[in-house]
Design goal:
Elements lengths: L4 H15 L4 H19 L4 E3 L4 H5 L11 H13 L5 H10 L4 E3 L5 H7 L17 H5 L15 H4 L6 H4 L2 H14 L2 H5 L1 H4 L8 H13 L2 H4 L24 H13 L1
Helix pairs in contact: 1-2, 1-13, 2-5, 10-13
Length: 260
């Protein structure tokens, strides 16, 4: 399903209404999912399987490459799993149910979680060329059996992680940032801390979403339910939640370009 950037921009206000959040990465990723769900509903499909939870369980986000140790990685995966209802599961549930589509999340099956979260966290570390979510990728790797039909081409199975709001097209996030510059003046942004002393927007894009949020929901009554998704700054990660903001993203693409 192909959508234009303008289609996405036109849907922002409705997405904030359905998602009940002003979190930057949630809105970035929920807008394409919201539009995809509309298409799925129009096709007559009532239920879909979705992959939420895999990155949290197996350390799949690119900022996990910066984990100082296996113990730190495990602590972060536990925290991410426990807070899924504020971010990825919130997105998956509300983006789909806005159109009456039910999303089921097999990676969050309790029995599977019990096994996956007890895997030695050293096996989930990404280093020395070992890709993120290596365990999960190997489960679909048939290279040890030449007679087996591959589940997926290697170009997909071993490609670098792309967060959803990046993977739908890099122009999507870039345009959101550019649009925010036209919607929020320097003067307004300079007074952000006065307007919102708690959880102050740190970018004009965040300011824009906060304004849209307030059009639908009273500030005092609703902001406590919002939790922002950001990488670990104490691991040296940029505050921008886009996977493209992480150093490992560019290094992987530079490596691929050199091999080509």
């Amino acid at each position: 399903y192909t959508f234009t950037v303008q289609d996405g921009l036109d849907a922002i206000a409705d997405v904030v209404y359905h998602l009940e959040t002003y979190d930057v990465t949630t809105i970035r990723a929920s807008t394409p999912m919201y539009m995809l769900s509309r298409k799925i509903k129009a096709m007559g499909v009532k239920m879909v399987l979705s992959g939420e939870g895999a990155d949290e369980i197996f350390g799949g986000y690119l900022y996990f490459h910066a984990a100082p140790s296996a113990a730190d990685l495990h602590t972060e995966t536990v925290s991410r799993v426990k807070n899924l209802h504020y971010a990825d599961c919130l997105r998956a549930n509300k983006s789909t149910m806005a159109w009456g589509v039910e999303a089921r999340v097999p990676f969050l099956d309790k029995a599977f979680l019990e096994v996956a979260m007890n895997v030695d966290p050293k096996e989930k570390m990404s280093f020395k060329g070992k890709m993120e979510k290596h365990i999960l990728r190997k489960a679909f790797d048939t290279s040890d059996d030449p007679t087996a039909k591959p589940y997926l081409p290697d170009s997909i199975l071993w490609r670098q992680k792309e967060q959803f709001s990046d993977g739908v097209g890099y122009s999507w996030i870039d345009t959101l940032k550019e649009t925010a510059l036209t919607k929020v003046s320097d003067e307004e942004f300079a007074k952000a801390a006065t307007r919102w002393p708690q959880d102050t927007p740190q970018t004009k894009e965040a300011y824009w979403y906060r304004e849209v949020f307030e059009q639908w929901f009273p500030q005092e009554a609703c902001t406590e339910s919002v939790v922002r998704w950001i990488p670990r700054g104490d691991w040296g990660c940029p505050a921008d939640p886009s996977g493209r903001a992480q150093k490992v993203h560019d290094s992987a693409y530079d490596k691929n370009a050199a091999q080509a």
